[in-house]
Request: fold
Amino acid sequence: MLIFGIFLLSNGFIYQKFYRPAEIAPIKESNKPPVVVEMRSDENKWHFNPDRVEVTAGDRVILKIYNEDSYDHGWATEALGINKRLFPKKETEIEFVASKIGEFPFYCSVPCGEGHYRQKGVLIVKPQD
Ligand SMILES: [Cu+2]
Reply:
């Protein structure tokens, strides 16, 4: 059992070190200051404002979302494994490193009323230059 465990661990290590294609490895955090993004959930509009956010790969992002409604919303994006509840009339801070390049949809993850399914946006992570 122990030997098998060691076998699995060393295989994982060898894969990460030598075989994993660079494009699917997580991008390391750059040493730039964090990028602060202010966002609001507009009152009774089921709309994230802005609904398009652009950052650069490696950025540490501090996303501050103010929920103007008197009910909960959520903010989630599967690509980065984030899902957070946004409480009413409050600012919620979500911090992450933009560790993948691409366009990732984000959406409200808490059933919140008639506009729930259209409350979404896109997070664009551009390659470093
Ligand atoms: Cu919702």
Summary: The chain has one helix and nine strands. Strands lie at 35-42, 47-49, 52-56, 60-67, 73-77, 82-86, 90-97, 102-107, 120-126. The domain at 27-126 is CATH 2.60.40.420 (Immunoglobulin-like). The chain has a mean pLDDT of 92.
